[in-house]
Amino acid sequence: MTTLDLVDEFRRYLLTERGLAVRTIEHYTEAAHAFLVARAADDARVVKEWNAADVLTFVRRGSASYPPVRMQQLCTGLRAFLRYLCFRGYTLSDLSKCIPRIARWRLATLPKSLSAEQVDRMLIRCRRDKAGGRRDYAVLLLLSRLGLRAEELRRLTLDDIYWQRGELTVRGKGRGPEPMPLPQDVGEALAAYLTHGRPASGSRSVFVRLTPPHDAYGNSEAFGHIVRHAMRRAAVDAASKGTHIFRHTLATAMLRGGASLREIGHLLRHRGEDTTRLYAKVDLVRLRTLALPWPGGAL
């Protein structure tokens, strides 16, 4: 059985027998494919001959190349794949038990954000005389003004925009539809894209492919590409080059403008308070008043 055959079989199992979400299946099969490719490059031993050392070698290599959050995702998918191999009798034992836990302290670092000047530069550099530029401008405004997630952009449909009420319905992460205000500049950007940028399509999704077939995006990675292209156009060198940095940017700006953590969590639709507490560390000036003097340090 080839690598692709085994990955396809695993994908069918996740879909038909486990009933997992499409995005979860993508993550799990990506991990399975990466592991199979690594095993094929190392040696030609058959699946039944794999052992704990093979798994640990793969994890150690990945840890040297990927950040902790990516490794956690990779290890979760790999555990599911290795359990499946044991379940099907492809391996002699459950090698998923060999995968170590990846440490990641969620509140240990400061949130990465963009400056207002960097965001403005990215918006200005959008070619709004072209269809792609109108789309990019609308996407960047939705990210920067409303803090939408990439998956929320992908799920946004024409029926979610209430022009007369100035409102947008957002289908969030693990939650039901939520209404959000539609600021005038965001509404104008959306209207310009829908009128003069979005190609004719049978899809009800707001954002569709500009090249045929003009259907909805299959995953949210397309919006990450839009952000990275926008950063290159505007010569923005950011610590993070994905869509999520706009959520951090919006929250940081709100906190510095006097908003409470509760207000920030409500706007960003956080499911837990711990996620919002990350931004308590942004105001370094006020945090310094709480810090105890370091023994032996300057007074």
In short:
The protein is mainly α. The protein has 13 helices and 3 strands, in the order αααααααβββαααααα.
Description:
It is a single chain. This protein has 299 residues and is mostly helical. It folds into two domains: 3-98, Tyrosine recombinase, N-terminal domain (DNA polymerase, domain 1, Orthogonal Bundle); 116-283, hpI Integrase, Chain A (Orthogonal Bundle). It has 13 helices and three strands, in the order αααααααβββαααααα. Strands 1-2-3 form a three-stranded antiparallel beta sheet.
CATH fold-type name of the largest domain? hpI Integrase, Chain A
User: Care to count the β-strands?
Assistant: 3
- The rough form would be described as globular
What kind of oligomer do you see? Answer: single chain
Q: Classify the helix fraction into a percent range.
A: 40-55%
Strand order of the main beta sheet, please?
1-2-3
Please tell me the overall pLDDT: 86
Q: What proportion of the residues form beta strands (DSSP E)? A: under 5%
The CATH class name of the largest domain reads Mainly Alpha
Cα gyration radius (Å): 23 Å
Structural class: mainly alpha
CATH superfamily of the largest domain: Intergrase catalytic core
CATH architectural grouping of the largest domain: Orthogonal Bundle
Number of helices: 13
N- and C-termini, Cα separation: 69 Å
Low-pLDDT regions: none
**Sheet having the most strands:** 3 strands, antiparallel
Number of folding domains?
2
Topology as a string of helices (H) and strands (E): HHHHHHHEEEHHHHHH
